[in-house]
Amino acid sequence: MDYKKSGVDIKAGEESVNRIKPMVKSTFNSNVLTQIGGFGGLYQVDLTKWKEPILVSSADGVGTKIMVARMAGVYDTVGQDLVNHCVNDIFVQGAIPQYFLDYIGVGKLNPEIIEMIIAGFVKACKENEMALIGGEMAEMPGIYSPEDFDLAGTIVGLVEKKNIVTGEKIIEGDVILGFKSTGLHTNGYSLARAVAFDILKLNVDSILPGLNQTVAEAFLKIHKSYLPILIDYATPDVIHGMAHITGGGIPGNLKRVIPEGLCAEVDVKSWETPGLFQLLVDAGNIKPLDSYDAFNMGIGYVVVCSEAIATKIMSTTEAFRIGHIAKINSAQKVKLINL
Hints:
- By secondary structure, the protein is an alpha+beta fold.
- It has helices at residues 10-25, 65-72, 77-91, 111-127, 189-199, 215-219, 227-230, 249-254, 275-284, 288-294, 307-316, and strands at 53-61, 96-106, 131-139, 149-160, 175-180, 239-244, 262-267, 299-305, 320-327, 334-337.
- The protein has a six-stranded mixed sheet. It has a four-stranded mixed sheet with strand order 1-4-2-3, with helices on one face.
């Protein structure tokens, strides 16, 4: 008996590391002080650029979207999804990403698949101008089946203390702007899979009715990063609050930044529901409120700001008005209008 016979192939792990080294190193900048393979990644903060830097960190995964990727044999996009998801999560507070750490758990290491997954991490890290400084590949037979894998990521960013966006500056009369999602992003896949595969009896190569897209094409659209669009506006004097629309939808995420005594009134008729979401809602006979709790329904990111700033942002981005902030004596912090 040896380790390989028990299900863990050390040589496959070494081959995987060798394959990804050049890609990962291409994300390094002058702040990265270690090479690939160390026990920990060292990252130096450039204090000539920061006066009162505050560390902002987050960890997340991509949920059961991985199952669709595995079924379709597409492995590079989920890496991009994870990085962009984490970027959006810390950018809500005004943080600029500095570095990323990944975790890949598999039933059986396949160096080619690992290389494709890491390629996705690398692409998104470069697009968001941050370094991929470390990670973990764990081969765990018994926990995962041979074809299974899982992803998780940790991001660390910096924000000047005076520029932390908390939502506390949100006031009555502020405008709520919406930014379109590219699709499901990384949430609601358990429900979406149930509708597509169990109710509609489709597979990943099936054309979705009325959409001229396969299930794989629609379900694997890359989660969008909103950092490049809004980086020039992300201070509390300009933007009063931001919300990344993930699990829990608009109601579950926007309420996290709304101060007590105020309510975000969102008009769901202010944008056209994308065809993918309408198909899932209709085919699954999903109740309106449940659909906005499970899916982003076409809105991936929300900004709350003054009327003047809203006009400026709308003139330079694809943002559009989806609601406003009202004063209300209720525990309800988000109200969906025209549901």
